[in-house]
Amino acid sequence: MERHLYQHTYLGDRYEDVVQAINEHGPEFLGGSASAARDHADEIVTNLHVEIAGLDVSKTVDLELGEPETLDEHATRWLVNWHAEDGDTIFPAMRAYLEVAALSVHPPLTQVSFIGHYEPPLGVIGAAADRLVGHRVAEATIDAFLRDVKWSIHRYLGSQATATPS
């Protein structure tokens, strides 16, 4: 039983600047500037962490960021895949797109979306566990992931703005 996830956030930055920031610094943004480590050209090792209902869930994952795919003049997406670094089958692999879309030019407003799916592990038992708590953990993880990406982009673009001469 495949489970689908969709979450989004907004940035008050120009679409072009957000796309350029992800293209240039995507691994750092997606992996967290302090914890990301490049293993090779397209793979990032990072720690996904979330707390839900007092339960602290953390897992080191291999995260792969694909090449940008321009959907139209106002939307771009990147394939994002992750799976447990140690091959642990209790945590599902995620296949998703990180999508950036311009909503407004003046004032600038850009939507960053996570559109993905995963298959709960462990068959019928895993599907039952996913219905009880797993899906909420997945949603909370994606929420934290998008929050980190937003913060990283905002920090980068803010530092770029302050470095630009007036």
| Rounded average pLDDT | 80
Q: CA-to-CA gap between the ends?
A: 55 Å
**Largest sheet at a glance?**
7 strands, antiparallel
User: Structural class, from helix and strand content?
Assistant: alpha+beta
Q: H/E series, N to C?
A: EHEEEEEEH
Strand content: 35-45%
**Quaternary structure classification:** single chain
Low-pLDDT segments: 33-44, 162-166
DSSP E strands, number: 7
Give helix % range.
25-40%
Strand order of the largest sheet: 1-7-6-5-4-3-2
Strand and helix layout:
Layout (H helix, E strand, L loop, with lengths): L2 E9 L3 H17 L5 E4 L2 E10 L2 E18 L2 E10 L9 E11 L4 E10 L4 H41 L3
Antiparallel strand pairs: 1-7, 2-3, 3-4, 4-5, 5-6, 6-7
Helix pairs in contact: 1-2
Keywords for this structure?
166 residues; alpha+beta; 7-stranded antiparallel sheet; 7 strands; 35% helix; elongated; disordered C terminus
Brief overview:
By secondary structure, the protein is of the alpha+beta class. The chain has helices at 15-31, 123-163; strands at residues 3-11, 37-40, 43-52, 55-72, 75-84, 94-104, 109-118. It has two helices and seven strands.
